[in-house]
TrEMBL record:
Keywords: Acyltransferase, Transferase
Organism phylogeny: Archaea, Methanobacteriati, Methanobacteriota, Stenosarchaea group, Halobacteria
Ranges for domain N-acetyltransferase: 1-152
Magnesium found in the keyword field: no
Protein name: N-acetyltransferase domain-containing protein
Length: 154
């Protein structure tokens, strides 16, 4: 597994990963009408994040292609995205990305990493030391849970 910083040329492929991950995670959890717009619409924030020096966007690749990505705002400690292609779930891609994003946020002086994650991903974050907070509504009817983790320098 190779991890590198994303470039503007990566955005279309990363958006495909995001769409596939949302569809896989939300099918069976929500009625399709609830998340259809998320799958159908590109994430307009991604190109902005790649271009903004406050954001670190990392891509994890297999030998062949990108299989996941994550983004963290190093000025605020907010995790904006963490997606793994469904065919690579459970292979360590998400964990590797999260570790790298935590390291980058810590290096930038952040003492806490925060995210608003879909309910379907809360267990992943809890296994990685995040604590569950309040449930919030975001992206239409998709419920998200606030999670946070203190960061400590190595």
């Amino acid at each position: 597994m190779n991890v590198r910083e994303a470039t503007a040329a990566d955005v279309p492929a990363l958006d495909v990963i995001r769409r596939q991950a949302i569809e896989a995670a939300f099918t069976g959890e929500y009625d399709r009408a609830v998340f259809a717009d998320l799958v159908a619409s590109p994430d307009d924030r991604l190109p902005e994040w790649v271009a903004d020096p406050a954001w670190v966007v990392l891509v994890v690749e297999s030998e062949v292609t990108a299989v996941g990505y994550g983004a963290v705002n190093t000025e605020t400690g907010e995790l904006g995205a963490l997606y793994t292609a469904p065919d690579h779930e459970g292979s360590g891609c998400g964990s590797t990305l999260l570790e790298q994003l935590e390291r980058r946020a810590c290096e930038a002086g952040r003492d806490r990493l925060r995210a608003a994650t879909p309910r379907t991903a809360v267990g992943f974050f809890e296994r990685h030391g995040f604590e569950r907070g309040e449930t919030v509504e975001r992206d239409g009817d998709v419920r998200r849970v606030r999670v946070a983790k203190p960061l400590t320098p190595d």
